[in-house]
Amino acid sequence: MALLTELHRSRLALLLLCCISGALGRDLTIGGRAYIQSTSRWLPLYPVPRLPSVKEPSEPRNIHLSFGDTERDIVVTWSTVSKVSLPLARFRACSAPPHQPWQLATARSTKFVDGGPLKSAQWIHRAKLLNLSSGERYNYSVSSDGSVWYPAMEFRVPNVSQAQRSFAVFGDFGLANAQSLPRLLDDVTRQRMYDAIVHVGDFAYDMPDENGAVGDRFMQMLQPIASRVPYMTCVGNHEEKYNFSHYRNRFSMPGSSENFFYSVNIGPVHLVSISNEFYFFTNYGTAQLGRQYRWLDADLREANLNRTAAPWIVLIGHRPLYCSNNDSRDCDWGARTLRSGFNGHRWGLEPLIHKYGVDLAFWGHEHSYERTWPVHNGSVVGKTSDTKTYTNPRATVHVITGSAGNKEKHAYFVDKAPKFSVFRSTDYGYTRVTFFNASHALLEQVSDDKQGQVIDSFTVVQKRHGPFGWN
Hints:
GO terms for molecular function: acid phosphatase activity; metal ion binding. The chain is of the alpha+beta class. Helices cover about 20% and strands about 30% of the residues.
């Protein structure tokens, strides 16, 4: 509430200042405070939350949520500069009477040392809140000693009796030029639109920079969003430094693969996250590629046996299998490597996703938005005159959504769109996805350049979930 109060009190003054400056799209420092400018009418200047003072090394920071093994399990992750005596999370249903005791969860703590010259250290704490009540809102807080508690926050557990689930999906989101942040904050805090945020790689630009300080500031910038809604991730190329150590240590995804590959059922959606970076950073070896491929094969096989409970299979990764940007290395050689594998046959992803009927795939890496027809092996499958509704598609639909904003700014397209491409935009923005039920999903691309206008939308109607074929 403290952050929202500050936002509301300062909104008119910030709007006036923004109008006077006439320079949207830049980050500002006013009176020693950092702000992010945007085209959001609700919040034209977003005051970036400050990190705790170095004089308070035990004070919690970088608080964020993720799903555990199920959508009724929430993992609370936070960090402190120093080792603490008793890292705890407490939680209580909002509907509970005030006198009802808090439930406590003891956090597991690990020391993380940045690989830079200063070897900056911090402690990462993870508390699991298990078997939460379906559809319930919870208050929660964290503590370093069990006596002094961080101001209470709130999250909502998805209602398992209702099929609808909504996500915001984006990638390539940085500390500088974080264009989509103010509008996402409005979506999450004021409109309560999402059951999860899905970030498809490339964080902060870059988390290891300045001996890890950029990562600390980025995670603090995300806290007003990620402390309210599970923040689900996959790894990108900008996380590579020190063998992806910041990504492996800062996040808490399901499973036991150090966040690189995992899956979780969220309502009617089987969400599968993989590392496409394994294909390109082979200096760390290729054993992890084989492990991921075998895991993905087994996971998708099992997911197909569970289509009644989770009919939609959604794959997320960082680098796209299809794109039409004017970077031929990514959209030609890189995309072909991911589709077909090394030497055109080893660990290729496209045969698997077609074999097991992956409905939607979300990628980033290209700082733009693009969506495809249902496509397989470079060819459109079942193209019609209707670009707004895909009915019972027999191949995967790919969405590239890497334009949430970072210091590298936009990526541009080749002049002539390939046959597989339906819609392209270089506007800053992000994707909203709503799965209404087992058969209908709506995807919308929000433009920050156009004041939150939905510049592309389409519906997928799939009443024949299952494998697309073996070839």
